[in-house]
Design a protein that fits this description.
Number of helices: 2
Distance between the termini: 34 Å
Strand order of the largest sheet: 1-2
Largest sheet: 2 strands, parallel
Number of strands: 2
Oligomer: single chain
Strand content: 5-15%
Shape: globular
């Protein structure tokens, strides 16, 4: 990657997820944890912390499996 290129949010999330080790506790701020959780190896246990709270965090729900009562700070299910 040369000096002027920018990584996409998904590329950053994949890179962060790859750096996480089993048993890690992380606070990634707002927004990024939502993406990172979708890329964490399912064999790892990683605890995410966020100022606005996290409940049952993991990959995004598959289409048709969303729970309208569970949503993030951006109102995504």
């Amino acid at each position: 990657m040369s000096g002027g290129e920018r990584l996409s949010r998904e590329a950053v999330a994949r890179r962060v997820a790859a750096e996480l080790e089993d048993g890690d506790y992380v606070n990634l701020g707002v927004g990024l944890p939502t993406l990172v959780a979708g890329y964490v190896d399912p064999s790892k246990t990683v605890v995410f912390h966020a100022e606005n709270g996290i409940l049952g965090f993991g990959p995004a729900a598959r289409p048709g499996e969303e729970d309208p009562d569970l949503f993030d700070a951006a109102s995504a299910t």
